[in-house]
């Protein structure tokens, strides 16, 4: 058994296996971890959904009912379901969860990853400076930054007291964490730079589709079959109230990208478009698109269904990136820059037609790239798949002098 801690992809596979009804032994073999490790993972990183504090939801069954204080019993002890005593030790997959009003316990991979990371960080984050020294630092900062508008670096270099207590970086970190009276936005030029913020992350919908299709599985598969062509999928959106979006399909090795118009946020529209592509290419589809990677957006909720054709035969492999990690398909995201030359962010896409989308990508793929050794993505992709493939997806070669990446191209 591996002694390495569980990673985010392992937690995704664990939740997906629970949703599919795997046993504890099957989960142990799937993750390569011991059964006790999986038990501790679920118990330590689950979350609870509270119930009402009434006698019906209490496990004590008191003969003499104690008085309620502001609607709550001081001796209340929530009833715990017998399901928690056996795998999966939670209410995941319970048929009665929607009608049960007792205390509930769930395992979610996103919450488990956040909880695990918090437990690893919090014991290592504490103030190493005593209260008296912290007060002295605070007084120096109030005088220099709040009253005189000095920068932290200027104040630190000029103050021998601050230099004797700690480093400049430590003071800046204490300001960001709120340990001092001076706030981060009061530092000069703070608002000019990008900073990381903790946003509430949404749960993964239909997580069982990601079983065996996580980003780690993708990397292992690409490593096992280095000669196959991995493709990356994403969507480009305009305004919030738009009805249309662009499904982009990218080949990272040549920077080649083409796309289709789809209904915004529609998984059915994505499946229909790719099914149509499979029908056009026929038997060549399996050789051209052996590995496919998409994000976890709602438009890719049925992406895994494309692994199997209408006859039930496996023709390709589908994988998903880590949630909220656009860098897992960096080539696709990087290529969207050329789309934004023509269609800026915040502009509507409802005026687009498939003909305009094909024209847009024809010009983008005819743009000479230094990363391609001064060749165009069109040239490199034609050398690999031929002109027939280009005609099938509607991409044409554009003379280098006629390449246009301005909004007038599709207006």
Characterization of this structure:
With 411 residues, the chain is α/β, with parallel strands linked by helices. Helix 1 (8-19) packs antiparallel against helix 2 (24-31) and helix 1 (8-19) runs antiparallel to helix 4 (109-121). The mean pLDDT is 90. Helices cover 37% and strands 9% of the residues. The chain folds into 3 domains: 8-123, no CATH class; 131-181; 213-409, Nucleotidyltransferase, domain 5 (2-Layer Sandwich). Strands 5-4-3-6-7 form a 5-stranded mixed sheet, sandwiched between helices. The chain has a two-stranded antiparallel ribbon with strand order 1-2.
How is the secondary structure organized here?
Elements: H1 8-19, H2 24-31, H3 35-45, E1 47-49, E2 104-106, H4 109-121, H5 131-146, H6 152-158, H7 160-165, H8 168-177, H9 215-224, E3 230-236, E4 244-251, E5 256-263, H10 267-281, H11 284-288, E6 291-294, E7 317-320, H12 330-342, H13 354-365, H14 377-385, H15 387-393
Parallel strand pairs: 3-6, 6-7
Antiparallel strand pairs: 1-2, 3-4, 4-5
Helix pairs in contact: 1-2, 1-4, 3-4
Number of structural domains: 3
CATH superfamily of the largest domain, please? Answer: Ribonuclease H-like superfamily/Ribonuclease H
**End-to-end separation:** 60 Å
CATH architecture verdict of the largest domain: 2-Layer Sandwich
Which regions contain 5 or more consecutive residues with pLDDT less than 50? none
**What is the CATH T-level topology of the largest domain?**
Nucleotidyltransferase, domain 5
State the helix count.
15
State the order of secondary-structure elements, H for helix, E for strand.
HHHEEHHHHHHEEEHHEEHHHH
CATH C-level of the largest domain? Alpha Beta
Overall pLDDT, averaged?
90
The structure class reads alpha/beta
Sheet having the most strands: 5 strands, mixed
Indicate the overall shape: globular
CA radius of gyration = 28 Å
Assembly of the depicted chains: single chain
Helix content: 25-40%
**Strand sequence of the main sheet, in spatial order?**
5-4-3-6-7
Strand content: 5-15%
The total beta strand count reads 7
């Amino acid at each position: 058994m591996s002694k390495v801690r569980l990673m985010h992809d392992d937690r995704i596979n664990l939740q997906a296996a629970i949703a599919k009804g795997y046993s504890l032994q099957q989960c142990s073999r799937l993750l390569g971890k011991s059964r006790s490790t999986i038990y501790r993972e679920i118990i330590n990183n689950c979350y609870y959904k509270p119930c009402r504090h009434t006698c019906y939801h209490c496990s004590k069954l008191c003969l003499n009912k104690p008085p309620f204080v502001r609607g709550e019993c001081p001796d209340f002890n929530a009833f715990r379901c017998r399901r928690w005593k056996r795998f999966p030790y939670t209410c995941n997959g319970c048929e009665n969860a929607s009608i049960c009003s007792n205390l509930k316990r769930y395992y979610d991979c996103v919450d488990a990853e956040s909880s695990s990371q918090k437990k690893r960080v919090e014991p290592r984050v504490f103030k190493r400076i005593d209260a008296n020294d912290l007060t002295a630092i605070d007084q120096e900062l109030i005088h220099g930054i709040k009253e005189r508008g000095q920068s932290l670096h200027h104040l630190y270099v000029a103050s021998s007291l601050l230099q004797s207590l700690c480093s400049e970086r430590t003071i800046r970190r204490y300001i960001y964490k709120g340990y001092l009276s001076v706030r981060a936005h009061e530092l000069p030029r703070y608002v000019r730079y990008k900073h990381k913020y903790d946003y509430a992350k949404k749960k993964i919908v239909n997580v069982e589709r990601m079983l065996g299709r996580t980003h780690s599985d993708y990397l292992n598969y690409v490593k096992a079959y280095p000669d196959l062509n991995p493709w990356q999928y994403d969507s480009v959106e305009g305004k919030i109230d738009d009805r249309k979006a662009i499904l982009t399909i990218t080949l990272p090795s040549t920077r080649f990208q083409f796309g289709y118009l789809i209904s915004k946020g529609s998984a059915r529209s994505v499946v229909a478009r790719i099914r149509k592509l499979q029908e056009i290419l026929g038997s060549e589809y399996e050789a051209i698109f052996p590995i496919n990677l998409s994000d976890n957006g709602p438009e890719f909720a049925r992406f895994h269904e494309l692994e199997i054709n209408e006859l039930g035969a496996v023709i390709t492999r589908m994988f998903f990136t880590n949630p909220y990690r656009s860098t897992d398909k960096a080539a696709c995201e990087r290529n969207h820059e050329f789309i934004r030359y023509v269609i800026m962010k915040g502009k509507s896409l409802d005026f687009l037609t498939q003909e305009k989308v094909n024209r847009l990508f024809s010009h983008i793929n005819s743009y000479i790239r230094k990363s391609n050794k001064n060749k165009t993505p069109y040239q490199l992709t034609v050398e690999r798949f031929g002109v027939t493939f280009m005609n099938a997806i509607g991409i044409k070669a554009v003379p280098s002098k006629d390449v246009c990446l301005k909004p007038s191209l599709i207006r």
